[in-house]
Amino acid sequence: MVDFVHEALLYRDDEQYLTGTVPFVRDGLAAGEPVLVAVPQRGIDLLRGALGGQADLVEFLDMRRAGRNPGRIIPGVLSTFTNHAAEAAANGRVRIVDEPTWPDRTELEYPACVQHEALINTAFEDRPAWILCPYDTANLTPEAVRDAEATHPIVVEGEHRRPSTHYREPYLIAEEFNRPLPAPPPDAITRGFDLDALAATRRLVAGFATEAGLSADQVEDLVLAVNELTTNSVVHAGGFGTLFLWREGGVVVCEVRDAGRIHNPMVGRRNPGVNARGGYGVMLVNLLCDLVRVHTRENGTTIRVYVG
């Protein structure tokens, strides 16, 4: 029987954080359930200290690195762990502490965080997983706390556990946060592309990223990501599109616009499977880039990626 649970843990200090997370982890270990803790490093340090020797039985990931791009978390963190750990689970279920939203997330990152939290409910609805998501209510905005209640069916505060009266359908939340992106800067490089221009587009991105100081691996990741997006535009969105390219400090930003529409918000967050004819492109982009933002509408789609 599928037993999927998705909870928001609202905490105000370290004591409340540990009160909510330590029993959750220990109960999972006692039940023979594999446990992943994917939170910022400070939370990892707190939990390791509280768990003592049991910490060696837990997989830890620094979410500021593994989940820097919120769109990467479902395919690259949660699903990866679940797929590998489920066979070892005594009852088939895994437990995950997942903290994707922290106080210094930027305004650009935040909509992707909310979409991620909403779409967990779709991605795992048929999988045996118990996911607990801590929210630092002392430092997050009131809007972030309200969004936590909208994206989690269950809310935990201290020793109290209650259904969220503000929970909403995941796709409605995903559409609410399908928000327009700020305009590219006036000095951004702008190039149209079609099938014949794909190779030249790759060379342009590689040269720009190299001159901007990205490492060889980062350049390779960015070129591969942009190639996936531009190829998708050619194959699935009318045969052409527009590329924008610029720098923000040490980060290279590429934006691809085309006339297509992404109808399913799970695109890029779920592995389409070995028998699928396509669908890997946006997921690969999410895995490669430090941030991916998508704005899709009836008359076209914009996908912006950040590497650096």
TrEMBL record:
It comes from the Bacteria. Residues 194-305 form the Histidine kinase/HSP90-like ATPase domain. One of its GO terms (molecular function) is protein serine/threonine kinase activity. It holds the Pfam family HATPase_c_2. The keyword Transferase applies. Keywords: Kinase, Serine/threonine-protein kinase, Transferase. Residues 6-153 form the MEDS domain. Signal peptide: none annotated. NCBIfam families: RsbA_anti_sig (NF041045). This is Anti-sigma regulatory factor (Ser/Thr protein kinase). The lineage of its organism: Bacteria, Bacillati, Actinomycetota, Actinomycetes, Pseudonocardiales.
